[in-house]
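4.2 Preliminary Data

To establish feasibility before requesting continued support, the project team ran the inverse folding procedure on a target of 402 residues. The structure was first converted into the token representation described in Section 3, and no sequence information of any kind was made available to the design step. The complete token record follows.
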């Protein structure tokens, strides 16, 4: 897919979060911006802002009066769907509808429902590791991280596991194919809608115990969910559940491949893994969301106008030295860690129990199976990064040290 924009000339005045250089160098870019211009701007995408301090990200995330979630993915095209429902409830919904659309989904992601998945997630990780045999070189993103969340969410939604490549394609279209021609982007959404229609028809004919049947039989204000609501929530769960967790697993393994001391500590003391996971989530948070300006407002001295895009880089907030001590260091036993990886405010991640479970089990099993490993090529450019609002390694070649 060809970008409709050229290379970035200046990150403060012409940024592009979908430029291939952004995710690879994001921490340096945020640090530069924090020191010079804490709210960057671009004319791309019909105008977008990028605040990089914890203070501004928090202020915007909590302000549902001046900012709408009608679309959380920046693209050159403003969404057709209207507030307060939006096209992927509840993430695209504003109050008061948001509260009710979120409440509907909460029980499906409670610890009581998620905890029992641990056995299946562990078996899945072990199968993936066994399939790598005794190879000396493996790709921890391609052969491991990317498969875990796809498999889990496909099972939860009741979709064929054999469609995993299709799901990764849909997620790529929604999240990475943002700076392309309108027809290409609409065609991609059309393919996703067609796929979901087939799954919905199948579930109407053969109802079963999964999230799709749950959405089809759920009610809101004593009425069945509208077909747009059902389809929108399915898109949300498919997209929110895949790239995010895949990225977090990949970044955690990248850290362990490049920090022998931390790796050894976790090998010696696996009970520390859950604490380390929180630090990986802070330091390598994968998810940046977006808002549209609903009413003119000034943030950090910048005049934000109705319909401007505003990126919400939770990953940048997480490494702001004003919010965290030694913010640029990864301290795997950091005790106080109120990170914003899962967002701030009313849209805080609904899948965090599931994400933490997948992340912990994926790291536990990888360490238990391989023990010591390092980057196959110490040049950091040997790792390739995703493009756009979800940040994580897409190729991660590692050498197993036996
Ligand atoms: C490490 C993995 C994950 C990260 C870092 C993450 C991060 C986030 C963030 C930052 C938000 C806030 C969105 C906003 O403010 O607009 C969010 C919302 C959400 N996430 Fe996650 N997420 C992860 C995994 C998952 C998973 C596995 C699921 C479920 C399958 C999920 C489902 C959702 C949903 C439904 C929302 C919308 C909540 C609302 O609008 O009230 N996420 N996530």
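Position-by-position output of the design step:
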């Amino acid at each position: 897919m060809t970008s409709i924009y050229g290379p970035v000339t200046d990150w403060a005045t012409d940024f592009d979060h979908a430029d291939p250089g952004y995710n690879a160098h994001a921490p340096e870019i945020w640090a530069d911006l924090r020191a010079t211009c804490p709210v960057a701007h671009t004319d791309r995408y019909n105008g977008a802002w990028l605040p990089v301090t914890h203070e501004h990200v928090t202020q915007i995330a909590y302000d549902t009066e001046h900012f709408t979630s009608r679309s959380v993915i920046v693209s050159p095209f403003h969404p057709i769907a209207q507030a307060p429902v939006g096209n992927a409830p509840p993430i695209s919904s504003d109050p008061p509808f948001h509260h009710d659309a979120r409440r509907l989904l909460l029980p499906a992601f409670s610890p009581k429902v998620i905890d029992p998945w641990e056995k299946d997630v562990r078996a899945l990780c072990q199968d993936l590791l066994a399939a790598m045999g005794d190879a000396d070189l493996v790709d921890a993103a391609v052969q491991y991280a990317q498969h875990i969340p796809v498999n889990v969410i496909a099972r939860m939604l009741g979709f064929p596991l054999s469609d995993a490549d299709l799901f990764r394609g849909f997620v790529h279209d929604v999240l990475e194919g943002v700076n392309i021609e309108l027809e290409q982007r609409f065609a991609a959404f059309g393919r996703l809608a067609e796929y979901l229609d087939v799954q919905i028809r199948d579930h109407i004919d053969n109802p079963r115990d999964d999230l799709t049947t749950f959405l089809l039989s759920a009610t809101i204000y004593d009425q069945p969910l509208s077909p747009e609501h059902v389809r929108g929530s399915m898109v949300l769960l498919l997209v929110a559940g895949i790239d995010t967790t895949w990225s977090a697993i990949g970044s955690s393994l990248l850290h362990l491949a490049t920090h022998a001391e931390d790796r050894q500590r976790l090998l010696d003391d696996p009970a520390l893994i859950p604490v380390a996971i929180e630090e990986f989530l802070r330091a390598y948070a994968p998810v940046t969301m977006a808002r549209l300006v609903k009413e003119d407002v000034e943030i950090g001295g910048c005049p934000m106008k109705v319909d401007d895009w505003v990126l919400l880089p939770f990953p940048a907030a997480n490494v702001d030295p004003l919010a965290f001590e030694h913010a640029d260091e990864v301290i795997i036993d950091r005790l106080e860690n109120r990170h914003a990886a899962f967002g701030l405010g009313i849209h805080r991640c609904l899948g965090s129990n599931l994400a933490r479970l997948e992340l912990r089990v994926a790291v536990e099993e990888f360490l238990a199976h391989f023990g010591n490993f390092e980057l196959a090529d110490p040049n950091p450019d040997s790792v390739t990064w995703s493009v756009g609002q979800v940040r994580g390694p897409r190729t991660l070649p590692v050498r197993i040290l036996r």
